[in-house]
Design a protein that fits this description.
With about 130 residues, this protein is mainly beta. It has two helices and nine strands, in the order ααβββββββββ.
Length: about 130
């Protein structure tokens, strides 16, 4: 316990804080850093910002049909989409990617956005066709 206190005291001296950009501190979807804390999102998409060491999980209700998926954002951003009750990704996207998804099993689809240390803003959109 003393070693932990000492380490924290050295890593974060009194009055110091992690210097994250203000847009990282004002993320309306947080806390959504784990699958179990996935933030619900609307019917067409979500925008966010990844900061160092961050992962953003979301959940969206998708009905049967065909969807056009689009990911725009910083080069280091990656997205993985998971079907209901599945642990393995159904598909992955990189910025600039446009993919089609045919949903045969309606339900709660989860997706995670991750990035490298220098990653930034992203926008993930889906449109039912």
């Amino acid at each position: 316990m003393v070693l932990l206190w000492l380490w924290l005291g050295l890593a974060f001296p009194a009055g110091a804080s992690r210097h994250w950009p203000s847009e990282c501190m004002n993320d309306v979807h947080e806390p959504n850093g784990t699958r179990s804390r996935a933030a619900p999102v609307g019917a067409q998409g979500v925008s966010g910002r990844l900061c160092e060491g961050d992962a953003d999980w979301y959940v969206a209700e998708l009905g049967r049909g065909r969807y056009r998926l689009t990911l725009d954002g910083s080069p280091g951003v990656r997205l993985a989409l998971f079907a209901p009750r599945r642990r393995r990704p159904l598909l992955g996207l990189r910025p600039g990617a446009r993919r089609w998804l045919r949903v045969r099993t309606p339900g709660r689809y989860r997706f995670v956005v991750r990035g490298d240390a220098a990653s930034g803003a992203y926008r993930f959109q889906w449109a039912r066709q």
